[in-house]
Design goal:
By secondary structure, the chain is α/β, with parallel strands linked by helices. Helix content is about 30%, strand content about 25%. It binds flavin-adenine dinucleotide and nicotinamide-adenine-dinucleotide.
Length: about 475
């Protein structure tokens, strides 16, 4: 009889967990994945990346039909009507297809799905429901959940105050929506409901939106979202909430203290961040402690302090992003299999899927200077990009930050309709250690939005052609 039931048990089937399980199986390891949801794919596929992008796409089409964009290009249609049931239906179909796709990939790769909550009995034994399963290696990929706001009770079951999961499933367009938190979720889901007709106010504790992004981008984002009709209450905190008769009343105070005001809404979205899922794992049984932020610490091979227990994704430090979790999932499986799995955490792109999209990779200008670099910066406005001008989507810019001595690209920030796609080029260039000159002398197809990247790279030396 084999010493263990499995070579690897992965707990959690989000982008970190399912990818780790598939790669482990591909490498010949007998693998199981524990998942408590009814469908595979974790937060990302069920209540995160995928449903939010479906609603962003649908609401963008509605806005384009509604705001004269189609008419400007000679496509005349009667005033569009919103069929929210159909829009939500398309979202549900996409989620079903993609989560079903993971179930198919598990079968194809012979990954066993152990259905239920997983908890450690010891470092080689995981309890799932009534049964226990042993494995030589266990990977924790339990992801994250919404951070609650003290004093503000979320009710995703038709209530007035919701989190991202509730805001993805609204069956009506709110008249007045207040978003608490001007981060990625607040701006993406706030954009969805604004486009569909809600009056949206974003309350943000800090003095700018999108913490962690480049300063120029954060300022530009504030301008863009205000112009689109969002009201922004920056440097403001929510100190209380009450719900009565389908309306919420929120108490707001200046972040630095001062006079309170109240604001009413028929929908409140709480989006102040996410926290790692470790409760219920019974980490005490293996003697594994979390850090002050509740995360599981690992070394660069994704080993925890406990031999044969590994961790990846939102549950460990680093940006809470699906592609970061996926890359860590591949790397951890390769390391378990005795290969060399590496993730370059200095080059993880991030994208906000609003219109225009906002994307970045590498260092912000502020962080580059703080790290001691003397920097050269090249900027190029989308207004001067011929394809953007032709498509009438000229909002935004490309900003490339290079080291002044070596010319190596340290980071790049893009605000553009296609920023999420454009940023991949810079990520790849950075992986190859590119200089701004390397990008400037790479031939880019014309006319494309990506030419703005070449121009921004040329602007690092002060020699852009089109401005
Ligand atoms: P998760 O995807 O959170 O998966 C963990 C899984 O583990 C869950 O299914 C959970 O049920 C399961 N689990 C937890 N504990 C146990 C247990 N004890 N036993 C069994 N199962 C357990 N990121 C992007 O990169 N791009 C985006 O566009 C994007 N959009 C997002 C939109 C929203 C609204 C949200 C909320 C998040 C979004 N994210 C996005 C973030 C992204 O979803 C996460 O970074 C990603 O899902 C993390 O993957 P993971 O595998 O670490 O964990
Ligand atoms: P976030 O960290 O992006 O933003 C939270 C915001 O809330 C911050 O700006 C913070 O300053 C603010 N805040 C915190 N406490 C507050 C308070 N009491 N009052 C007012 N504002 C307050 O978090 P999020 O938007 O909830 O997203 C969670 C995670 O999900 C992020 O880490 C993000 O990476 C991930 N995500 C990614 C994408 C994407 O990649 N497109 C989309 C959605 C979510």
């Amino acid at each position: 009889m084999a010493e263990f039931d499995f070579d690897v048990i992965v707990i959690g089937s989000g982008p970190g967990g399912y990818v780790a399980a598939i790669r482990a199986a591909q490498l010949g390891l007998k693998t199981a994945c524990v998942e408590s949801r009814d469908t595979l794919g974790g937060t990302c596929l069920n209540v995160g990346c995928i449903p939010s992008k479906a609603l962003l796409h649908g609401s963008e089409l509605f806005e384009e039909a509604n705001d004269g964009t189609l008419a400007k290009f000679g496509v005349k249609i009667p005033a569009p009507e919103l069929d929210l049931v159909a829009m939500q239906g398309e979202k549900a179909t996409a989620v079903k297809e993609l989560t079903g796709g993971i179930a198919f990939l598990f079968k194809k790769n012979k990954v066993t799905w152990l259905k239920g909550m997983g908890a450690f009995i010891d470092k080689h034994t995981v309890q799932v429901g009534d049964s226990q399963h042993t494995a030589k290696n266990v990977v924790i990929a339990t992801g994250s959940s919404v951070t609650p706001l003290p004093g503000v009770t979320v009710d995703n079951d038709g209530g007035v105050i919701v989190d991202s999961t509730g805001a993805l499933a609204l069956d009506r367009v709110p008249q007045k929506m207040v978003v608490i938190g001007g981060g990625v979720i607040g701006l993406e889901l706030g954009s969805v409901w604004r486009r569909l007709g809600a009056q949206v106010t974003v309350v943000e504790f800090l003095d700018q939106l999108l913490p962690g992004m480049d300063g120029t981008v954060r300022k530009e984002a504030a301008k863009i979202f205000k112009k689109q009709g969002m009201e922004l209450k920056l440097s403001t905190k929510v100190t209380g909430a009450s719900v009565d008769g389908g309306k919420a009343t929120l108490t707001l105070e200046p972040a630095a203290g001062g006079e309170a005001e109240t604001i009413e809404a028929d929908c409140v979205l709480v989006a102040i961040g996410r926290r790692p899922n470790t409760e219920g794992l019974n980490l005490d049984a293996i003697g594994l402690a979390t850090n002050q932020r509740g995360q599981i610490e690992t070394d660069h091979e994704f080993r925890t302090k406990i031999d044969s227990v590994w961790a990846v994704g939102d549950v460990i430090p680093g940006p809470m992003l699906a592609h970061k979790a996926e890359d860590e999932g591949i790397a951890v499986a390769e390391n378990i299999a005795g290969e060399t799995g590496i993730v370059n955490h200095a080059v993880i792109p991030s994208v906000v899927y609003t219109m225009p999209e906002i994307a970045g990779v590498g260092l912000t200008e502020e962080a580059a200077k703080e790290a001691g670099h003397t920097v050269k910066v090249g900027n190029f406005p989308m207004m001067a990009n011929s394809r953007a001008k032709t498509n009438r989507d000229t909002e935004g810019f490309v900003k490339i930050i290079a080291d002044a001595e070596t010319d190596r690209v340290l980071g790049a920030w893009v605000v553009a309709s296609l920023a999420g796609t454009m940023i991949a080029q810079i990520a790849q260039a950075m992986e190859f250690g590119a200089t701004s000159e390397d990008i400037a002398y790479t031939c880019h197809a014309h006319p494309t939005h990506s030419e703005a990247i070449k121009e921004a790279a040329m602007a690092v030396r002060g020699l852009p052609i089109h401005i």
